Structures are given as structure tokens and as C-alpha cells.
Amino acid sequence: MVRSLVTLLILCVVSLPMPVAGETSAVAASPEMVRNNAALAMITFAWQQELEYQIVFMDPQTGYRAMTYPKQHRIEIYARPGDDSARLAHDIAHELGHAVDVTFNTPETRKRWMELRGIDPSTSWFACNKCSDFSSPAGDFAETFAVLQVGNEYFSGRIAPRPTDKDIPALISFFSFLPKNAFPAPKARV
């Protein structure tokens, strides 16, 4: 976790505008850059090392908050002007959940997930391409991953209930293939 935070800090410093020779100070970071970096800092999972994905903040896209492109190892976050850092952190964590899914899950682990979450195991894992995934097992997996990362204030899953505090230990144990520090210490959930 410390390595992730140090890496994030270095990325933040490197991405800040530098003064031109002769200028006395650098231009301040934009409010959007500060918000985006704050959202990234809320993610405890070492996605840079475990997944080697790139996260890119882009202009808003009608109908989408974010998108994962597994073949390119790229996550696009379509940040909206009214989004705060907690909302963006949830979106980032949701997309990282998709990246974890396509990187580590197998048909057997997906079936186990559906059983754990009370989803009919015969349900198709993925929703249609570029459809809302909140009613699919893949979307539940991503939403639940986001809950484990940043809390459930923004949980939008529709195929299984919002995870409760009682559910959290079993859900975290499902992710035994990830480093033990992949999720923050349990805290009160909304």
C-alpha cells in the first residue's frame, strides 16, 4: 500500500505543470486534477502492479460513467463536472473490479461468485457490449469490488442485494488470489 501511495504521489508531482525557466512558480493544479488524484488515492488495491492497467480521465460520455478495455489494459473514467472524489473513486474501483475479473476469474470462480451472492449460476456472466452491467453477474462482481475498496455509498447493483457488513468477510475471502492488503481495513459502511 505504501508503494502504491508513493507511486501515486510521484505521478501527481510529475504530472503537475512545471515552471518555464525564469518563472517563479508553477501553475496550480486544476480543481479537476486535484479531484481525480484524490479519487485515485482512495484506491488501496495495487492495480499498477497487479493488473498493469492505465487509468485515464476523460470528458463525460452520455450514458456511461466509465469503461474498461481489457485488450488495451485501459480504463477510461468519464468524469462529470459535479462528481466528487468519492464518486470517482467508486467508478475507478468498479472498473478495476472488471479488470480483476477478466484477469483472474475462471468459469469456476465465476460460478462460485454467483453462488456466494445468491445469483442463479445459469445466468450469463456478461451483459451485452456497452450495456449497463448492473443487472449482470459481472456488474455485481465489479460493484462489490468497489464496495470493498471504497464503501457502498454508490452501490448500484440490481442482480444481488447491497453487501452488508456481515457479508464483507466472506466477500474478501473470495479474493484470496489478491494480496492480503488489497482491501482497506473494514470500516462502517453506509
What does this entry look like structurally?
The protein is mostly helical and 190 residues long. The protein has one domain. 43% of the residues lie in helices and 7% in strands. The protein has seven helices and three strands, in the order αααβββαααα. The protein has a three-stranded mixed sheet, with helices on one face. Helix 2 packs across helix 4 and helix 4 packs across helix 6.
Entry summary:
This protein has 190 residues and is mainly alpha-helical.
- Would you list the SSEs in sequence order as H and E? HHHEEEHHHH
Structural class: mainly alpha
- Terminus-to-terminus distance: 24 Å
Count of folded domains: 1
Helix fraction, binned, reads: 40-55%
Mean pLDDT: 86
Low-pLDDT ranges: 1-25
Report the count of strand segments: 3
Please compute the radius of gyration using only Cα atoms: 17 Å
The percentage of residues in β strands lies in 5-15%
Instruction: Describe the global form.
Output: globular
Task: Provide tags for this entry.
190 residues; 3 strands
Topology:
Blueprint (H helix, E strand, L loop, with lengths): L1 H14 L15 H11 L5 H4 L3 E5 L7 E4 L4 E5 L6 H20 L2 H11 L19 H14 L17 H7 L16
Parallel strand pairs: 1-3
Antiparallel strand pairs: 2-3
